[in-house]
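Notes to self after the Tuesday call (sharing in case useful).
The group wants a holo model before anyone commits to mutagenesis around the pocket. I volunteered. Ligand is zinc ion. Logging inputs and output together so the record is complete.
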Amino acid sequence: MNHAGDAPDDLLSRLRQFHSDYFPLHQQRFQDLVSQGQHPKTLFVGCSDSRLVPYLLTGAGPGELFIVRNVGAFIPPYDGSHGLHGTMAAIEFAVLHLHVERIIVCGHSHCGAIRAAYEGVSDEAIALKAWLKLASEALLPVQPGAEAFRRTEQRAVVLQLERLMDYPMVRRAVEEARLTLHGWHYVIEDGEIHVFDALRGGFVAASEASNSGTGPYRPYVDPDAPEQATSL
Ligand SMILES: [Zn+2]
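Result:
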C-alpha cells in the first residue's frame, strides 16, 4: 500500500510526467480541441495488442484519430440485434456523427487472436471464444505455421473490410465517395505497414505502395488460395 510521502508508483509517476512535461508543450492544441470539439477524419480499428501503437505509426497527434480497439481488430456483423456492441457503436458514431473520411482496419504480425482462432482458448473465456469466430472465414485449411499465420492475419483484415461494407451507413458513404476503407497489416519486426491494395489484389509494403489503402473497393482474391473463385 502506498502512503502519502512514499515514492509514487510507476504509473503515478507517468501521470505526473504527462502533466508536467508533455501537456505544457501542447496545451493550446488541447484547449482548441475542447473549445472547437474534435473533428478527427480517421476511424482507426486496431487490434488491442500492446505492440501496435497507432499514434506512432501514423504520426498522429491529439484530435486526429478516433480509435476503437478489440481483440483481433474485428468488425462484428451488422445484425441489427441492438446488443451491447461497443465496436458497432463506435463505427456508427464515427460515420454518422463525426463524418470520418477514412476507416482503417489494422491487424498485425504475431497476432494472438489469429493464433487463438486456430488453437482455441480456455473454456472459461466464453466471450473470447465467440468473438474469435469473427476470423473463422479467414482461416486456412492447413497446419498453421508462420506463413499461414501471416496470410490469415491479412485475410482477416480483408474480411473485416467486407463486413464494414454491410453497415448501411458505411456502404452509403463509400458509394458516395465520402469515405474510403483502408486495410493494413503491421509487421512489428520490420516496423512497416503493408496496405491492402484492391487493384493489385494483395498487400503491398508501404515503402512500395502507391496509396495508403484499398481505394476503390473490390472483393479480395487471395492469389495463393487453392480455389481462385472464392472471394476469401
Ligand atoms: Zn492482434
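Two things stood out.
Residues 228-232 have pLDDT under 50 and may be disordered.
The chain has seven helices and six strands.
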